[in-house]
Design a protein that fits this description.
heterodimer; A: 86 residues; mainly alpha; Non-ribosomal Peptide Synthetase Peptidyl Carrier Protein, Chain A; 3 helices; 0% strand; globular; B: 545 residues; alpha/beta; Rossmann fold; GMP Synthetase, Chain A, domain 3; 9-stranded mixed sheet; 5-stranded parallel sheet
Chain lengths: 86, 545
Amino acid sequence: MEEMTLNEMKDLVLKYVIKEYIDDDDVTITYETPLISSGYVDSFSMVSLLVFLENKFKIKIPPSKATPEAFDSVNSIVALVNQYLK
Amino acid sequence: MTDHPTYDELSRNFSWSIAEQELEYKPGGRINIGWYCSDRICLKGAPDKIALYYEGFGGVEKKYTFNDIRLAGNTIGSFLRGLGINDGDRVCLFMDRIPELYLSFLGILKIGAIVQPLFSAFGDESLFVRLENAGTRAVITQKKHLSKVRKIRAQLPDLEYVIIVDGVKASDLEKGEVLFNLEKSEPVENLDVHPTTAESPSVLHYTSGTTGQPKGVKHVHYSLISQYLTTKWVLDLRDGDIYWCTADPGWVTGTSYGIIGPWSLGITQCVLDSGFSAQTWYRFIEKHRVTVWYSAPTAIRSLMKAGDEIVKSFDLSSLRHLASVGEPLNSEAVIWSERVFGKPFLDTFWQTETGSIMITNFPGMKVKPGSMGRTFPGITGTVLDPVTYDPITENGRAGLIAFKPGWPSMMRTYWNNPEKYKDKFVNGWYLSGDRASIDNEDYYWFIGRDDDVINTGGHLVSPFEVESALLEHPAVGESAVTSKPDEINMEVVKAFITLKPGFTQSPDLELDIMNFIRKKLSPLAMPQAVEFMDKLPNISTLEND
C-alpha cells in the first residue's frame, strides 16, 4: 500500500471505528477516546478490528499483542500497527 | 473455611422449606421477587444500607440504598402502570448495565409484569426474533440502542411503547416512544405490589438451541426460593459483604445472581459498566473492597493472560470468596487463582433453564480442580446412558447430565413452544444437554455439549441462527457453522461458506461477512474465522477440521 502519514493512518482507523462500532450519532470519538475500557468496542468485536488492521495495513499482529490495552484508543492502535509495518 | 457446615451436614434433612421459612413465605401465599429484593429488606430494618454501588465509564458513580431501590421500583412500576402495562405483559430491558436496568427489573416485577432482559449488544435481527416471540408490549432502552429498536419496530405489532431512559429530546421522539427520567420523576412512596403467587411468571430469558429460533425460558416468582438459598450457601454471602457479579443481566446469571440472590439477602453489590481490562477490574475490586466475586472462566483466563505482575499492583486482600460460572473452569485457572489471589475460583454449573446453581463447589467442600463439584443439596442429579436414558451407575463413565424435576427455580415452559419444552424430558429426567462423568465421591467432571450449540465465553450461540443470518449476506450462497477451540473463550464461531456467482473471496469480503453477523446478531455470534469453499462438505467433516 502507499505510504501513509501517521495522521492519515489515525484518520483511517478512526473512520472505521465510528462507522462499524458507534451507533449513537451524538457520541464523539477522538484519537484518545478509550474504545475497549469504555465499552464502545467489546472483546469479541476486537477480532473484527484486528482483521481490519491486518487487511488494510498488510500486516500480521500476533495474538499476544492484540490486547485490550493495545486496542484501547486510535492512538494506541496506530502505535501497535506501526511496530509491524515494514 | 472451618466455619462452614460440611456438604453432608447441609444435605442431611434438606428441604426447600429452609428458604421458605427464612423468607417467611407461606406456601399458597404471595411471593413477589421485586418486593422481596427491596421492600422486605427495608421492613427488616436496613433501609439505609447500600444496595448498589454503580460505576460507569468516565468516572460516573452512583449509589443507592435499599430504600432508594424500593422507591425506584415503585416509581418505575407506577410509570408502567400509567401506560397501561398490566400483569403478565412482557417488558423488555434492552440496556447496558446502568442503574435503570436493575431498578426497572424490580419495578416490572412489582406490578406483576414479566421481565424480558436482552443483551444490549444484540443486533436488530436477534432483538427482533426475541421480541416477536414474546409478543413484548414495551421495551425500556437507552438512546444509544434506539436505532436498533426503530429499525424493527414496524414489524412488531404488539410493541406499543419504547421507553427511553436517557438523552433523547422530546422533539426527536417518534410515535409510541416515551421518555422516562428516573432522577427527575417524583418518587412513589407507596405502590400496590401485584399479588403474585408462586406460579406467577416473573422472568423470560432467551437461550439458543441447535435448531430453530431462540427459546424463551419462562420462570416464576417461586424461583426466589432456589436463588436465595444457593446464593447464601454457594456464594456464601453474609451481612457486611461487598459482592460483585460480573455477568450482564441480559443473561440469566446477571439476574439470578446479579439481582435476585444478593438483594433478597439484603447484600450490598457493585456494578461496573465498562469494558474489560485487567487493570480496570483489579482497581474496581480494590476500590470497593469487594469480598465475594462471581465471574466467568473467559474473564478469569483473560486475567491470567494479563499476567501475575499486575495483580501485585493492587490490594485485593478484601477478597474472601471467588466463584465461577458459564463454562467449565479448567484446573489451570483454579490453581492460578489460588496462587495469585490466595483462594481458588470455585466452579458452579447451571443453565438458563435451571434458574439456579445445580452442580457446584462451595465453601466447606473439598475442591477437586477441574471438577464441576457435586449437586446442590435438594437436587437429584445423574448421568444417563445416551441410548437407553437409564442412569449410569459406573463411576467415570460418560453420560448425559440430567436432573429430577421439581426444584423451585426450574423453568416452567418455553414461551410459545411447549413441544420443545416436552423434548427436554425423558423417563422423568430433565436433560441438560451437557455430558459428564461422576467419580466415586459424586463429583461431576464436564466433558462437553451433547449438541452442536457453541459455548463461547459462557454464552450459547446457535449454529442454525448464524447459518440463517449468513444466507442473508448478498455474497453468501451456502453456509455451515461450527465451533473452533479458543484459548480464552473455550469456543468461537467458525463459518464455512460458498459464494454466489459473481463474488470472489478476499480478506475484505471475509471482514464484511464478520461485521454483517456482528451487527445483525451479536458480537458473540460473529464468526472469528471464515473459510471459503467451492462446495460444502457435510458438517461432521467440518467438525473434524
